[in-house]
Amino acid sequence: MSDTRRRVKVYTLNEDRQWDDRGTGHVSSTFVERLKGTSLLVRAESDGSLLLESKISPNTAYQKQQDTLIVWSEADNYDLALSFQEKAGCDEIWEKICQVQGKDPALDITQDPIDESEEERFDDIPETSHLVELPPCELGRLEEIADLVTSVLSSPIRREKLALALMTEGYIKKLLGLFRVCEDLDNREGLHHLYEIVRGVLFLNKAALFEVMFSDDCIMDVVGCLEYDPALVQPKRHREFLTKTAKFKEVIPITDSELRQKIHQTYRVQYIQDIILPTPSVFEENFLSTLTSFIFFNKVEIVSMLQEDEKFLTEVFAQLTDEATEDGKRRELVNFVKEFCAFSQTLQPQNRDAFFKTLANLGILPALEIVMGMDDLQVRAAATDIFSYLVEFSPSMVREFVMQEPQQTDDDVLLINVVIKQMICDSDPELGGAVQLMGLLRTLIDPENMLASTNKTEKTEFLSFFYKYCMHVLTAPLLANTAHDKNSKDHQDGATKMNPVCPDNFQTAQLLALILELLTFCVEHHTYHIKTYIMNKDLLRRVLVLMNSKHTFLALCALRFMRRIIGLKDEYYNRYIIKGNLFEPVINALLDNGTRYNLLNSAIIELFEFIKVEDIKSLIAHIVDNFYKALESIEYVQTFKGLKGRYEQEKDRQSQRLNRYRRDARSLDEDEELWFNDDEDDEEGETVDKSRMEEDFSDSYGKYMEAKKGAANGANSANNNGKSAAIPPSSAVVSVSSSTSSVKTVALPATPVVKTAMVGLVDYPDDEDDEDEEEEEEQSVRKRPRLSS
């Protein structure tokens, strides 16, 4: 149906008392056989689907509000509203509803829902008593009027009758005229009665009354009545605030007088609801639902009218980005856009989508890029709020803009880098702005909200862009504060001295903690890109310098970063940690913590417990080889003894596996041996090479199968070579190759090394302290003071 008179939006009221937009379509009133009655049908204008099918019930209370709204309830907690594009369409449907219910279309409500008990209560009342008779509007009758208004609030029927009575003969305007008289006479008693009357009329919750009370010539008198709360010694000065303190600023002149009036009205009504009226009690909660709806639809209308005025918004953005614009003017422009975006939150998803697309087309992001880099703190704060609205609405839109920016030689001009610098340079001691910006950055780099994008390559392209142009800006403070780390050899015996580069400044420590939180998020979600960055920049070593910080929360952030890396169980990371000996600062922090039971102690122990439980062999071997002597004194947990146990089990397993392979090589079936001998005649008489066994251990079973068993010296050679040679104490690094990988295990001088891949086993001497350890385990578990390493 192309008739715009019948074009409507369907709204439902949700549990939070907010209106949800169910779609736009065209309404009709038709007899539906299935429902056995005349019904309201709304079909979507996009695909013709049925948005609403509601039978006009004779007992349902329908309300007409603001000339273009029809509101009703279909169940106890299910409210519906039709918002018409044109008044004529609303009147047409309203007449149809009134016709079905046998009501006068001049009324704004067909009837009030009442429960059975109330119906029974009014059954015996004479018909004439249903008409509420208002006392004459005179000074001497104000107390009587106030009592009447207060008494009807508990009865839906009487509220409706009173509302109808108030609408007749301009009673509201007469009451407000009495207010002016009372104020001139300083009649406090009369003013207190007027407060009760006006407050009660608001609680009648009738849109028709609101239209009168909030009109330009009445609203300030309504506010004046609400100043004289009897509970206050002195009246509040709300009118003075609204007329003198609160100034309406037109950053760009608004030529539409209706729009200007709507903005004034909405601000003042919002002020009445939020500031003047007391917080409603449980009993009064629903009394102001119509007031909330009144404000809601006003805001929707304001946003729509501004959005349709292309000249106005174009001029706003032109002045916002113009270098000649004065700072004060630019501040007002930014605040206007911020308020505009805040109003847009009342829109439903599809309308909000159109709203932000309009802003994007007008150049909101290039404008933000300019104003976020300015020195004015108020401008930057408002720009940050606008940016948060955009990121929360559509991260993909922001990412698309960022990647389309011309690549300048100076990366500082990129929007994301401007945001990062804003975060780094936040002057707030509590870093409130930095925390907000960090959350926005996290949203932008989160792959989870890239998956549903129509652009399937968005994740790869954006992350490549971010790590190339932006990551160095994010990590700059971290690298700068850990630039002169001293070698671990400078810290003898776990000395508890501070590293001179660790930030003692609390604000700097907070900033580094935020950066580490973001980097930890990257480790968890970015895999390849962050792994390459960590390896190239040796980032983990720099982060672990912060384990020396006097700020425990920062040391915990550094530890959390390492824990996330180890939690991935990635051998590339493991080899990097082993090669750099990066457990040393963690173990030093544990030993320096001494006998204190605190979060740092528990977090470090949990890290080693994870390695033990997950049986990460390469890390277990490295820890036991290099640090077990320093850790064996810690007996209040069994974590480190458990690591040693895992280490010994792995050594035994490899030894048994080697022996089994040797036995299998000697006990081949005769048929298999003949087959191999025929195939490999040229190898007869050869001995098995000792070095080949250790280099190609993963293929050793096949190699032994190929060996000739017939020669006695061959068998003897296999037996002799089964004994692993001890590694000379002077060897610092042993490089072991296999058919699949090459792993380098770093060890301290004079310390044996365990191969972590499937390679030949190093033969360790028997532990002479086995019996002593068994006796120690029988002793009561207690925490010992840290022993020097």
From TrEMBL:
Residues 672-686, 764-778 have a biased composition (Acidic residues). SUPFAM superfamilies: ARM repeat, PH domain-like. One of its GO terms (molecular function) is protein phosphatase activator activity. Gene3D superfamilies: Pleckstrin-homology domain (PH domain)/Phosphotyrosine-binding domain (PTB). GO terms for cellular component: nucleoplasm; protein phosphatase 4 complex. This is Serine/threonine-protein phosphatase 4 regulatory subunit 3. It comes from the Eukaryota. Residues 644-671 form a coiled coil.
